[in-house]
Request: fold
Amino acid sequence: MAASTGKSFASRFGVHIAVLVFVIIWTIPTLGILVSSLRDKDQIIASGWWNSFASSSQTEAGRLPAASAQTQKDGKYVIEGNVFGDGAKRAISAFGTKAAAPTQYKAGTAADLGDGVTLQVNADGSFTLASPKPFEGDRGQRVYYASSAPPKFTTENYDAVLFSEGIGRSFMNSLTVTIPSTVIPILIAAFAAYALAWMRFPGRALLIAVIIGLLVVPLQMSLIPLLKLYNGVGTFFGVPSKTYLGIWLAHTGFGLPFAIYLLRSYIAGLPREIMESARIDGASDFEIFVKIVLPLSFPVLASFAIFQFLWVWNDLLVAMVFLGTAPDQIVLTAKLNALLGSRGGNWEILTTSAFITIIVPLIVFFSLQRYFVRGLLAGSVKGG
Amino acid sequence: MAAQIFSAIFVIIIGVGGCVAYFWGANKLLDLVFPSRGVSGTAAVDNLRRQGLVRPWLFVGPAMIILTIYLIYPVVETLRLSFLDRGGENFVGLANYEWAFGDHDFRNSILNNILWLAVVPAACTFLGLIIAVLTDKIWWGTIAKSLIFLPLAISFVGASVIWKFIYEYRGEGQVQIGLLNAIIQYFGGQPQVWISLPFWNNFFLMVILIWIQTGFAMVILSSALRGIPEETLEAAVIDGANPFQIFWKIMVPQIWGTIAVVWTTITILVLKVFDIVLTMTNGQWNSQVLANLMFDWMFRGGGDFGRGATIAIIIMIAVIPIMVWNIRQANKETGGH
Reply:
């Protein structure tokens, strides 16, 4: 098929370009937050992240020292110093004394401010303000300058976010929610899937139909009754209603229809002969399941585990309903949502937090893509 | 925190151990109650038959109990609650539904949901199909597919932050650090606060879901395309069909079933979309959708369960046709097994 269409060089070249454009559009957004999360926080707002390897320029304002700092030199009154004070030095390209024209003069040239007063600001920030008459007043001359800073990359944002914004703690909370929620449904679903695939009993067809129906029931249908149920149970036993146990069970319940559906269609496809010969040898259903079906089903179990892991890790809705927002319970997605509200403009915090929340799914995804794709195909193409 | 990690590990052990103990123990118990070995011939046959009646229920039992508590009971209960007042105590008839269709936010949500349903599944399927066809023809197609597939692993909240950064608007005179506004400015346009433009902001939110879901459509369709017999395509080429004719008249009709599956899967996802709207706008500037409106009513002013349940029922009604279609398809396929 590859060779049969689009033979000419131009059309093949066109295909490469088209795919490249799609790839760029699809990766640029993620690249943006990765690069930004590693940038200095002042530079993030000073220039777009696509310029992060170039020096970033910004216009700043400062005030020169007041008249008390003047000295006499060659019959002139002079104030000298550095606009950056003792702070970090940057390269100045231009300066000015009016807000309307902050870059009127080039660095290193002397500006005539009238009445014989001259001001020179050099590229390194040093300045000389000179006047034939003594300076007066206790407010210094206003000065504007355009400076550029070399690109600066740092892991400070990660430090800040992990240890003082509470993302580190939320990371642990997310793991606490995700791992049991992924492991518990597997066995329960596998037994049910085996029964639905290989055991004959009345009501089996109905059960399968119910499970396929439940596959598409919106989560929204479950939220209010379960919230009421949890509150009721909490009040009755005098325990908190928002607990990790509660969310583990909720995720197990919500994941089961897909788990049973996926495992059943795989287990039903296992060769009949293996089951029959084991049965003739006197193996019970339980032994067949444990010794034959489970080991053969490893690929589909892995597929489901990856799905459920990604689903639970990325979930916001269930976590917001069934878990609290205190630091000991808030998961990454909920924390990120909260930060969007409280730190709306602090892009160094948002981009870094976002990258931390997506790094685990990305690792899982890249290392286990084969199982992920297999599960996707099995889960949606057949019947679904 | 140590206690938390400990309890998580404890739960995994208890959970898995409990499951194993239950299945093994129940199975053992069944063998003890109805022994098939060491008893006379007819008794053994009888007991085997009894075992065969009970054992399937031991296997599906735990799953059925959990499904009943977490999905089946709630569906019935939500339907009941939608006819009750905010506390779920007094019967109010159809008052919640009457309220819904008169409510500005609700009507806005319905319109927006229709817009999402019209755009997102179509865009994902179309883009996914195009990319699947194109990447099939080049040597680095697998890498390209991997990269386009990648956003599928990212949470909706994470994706929202990623795109909020792209849509970022900085005031007059400041450097535009949002990619979209920077591009607009570069071409001489006027930077905008994109997510607060009524009506059009819907599309900026949809882009996020399309960005995430196109990879899904691409993978499924790509595998379907590979299932098209080589001879069909060769015959078309010999008959002088150009690439566009091959695409529209040979490939698309052959994978029509798969396209329908992708379309309906994304349709269901769109009906449930919540996280993107919550994090981007929380329904402001006329961008509300049903799922987010429902969440809002669940907690607004202590929670109005009657109205929340009503909105959930409306979402459910939209899903039912797909559900029926799925069950019919599955019955057709598994009928013989």
Observations:
- The first strand of chain A starts at residue 56 and ends at 63.
- The beta strands of chain A are 56-63, 71-73, 76-82, 91-96, 105-106, 110-114, 117-121, 126-131, 142-149.
- The two ends of chain A are 28 Å apart (CA to CA).
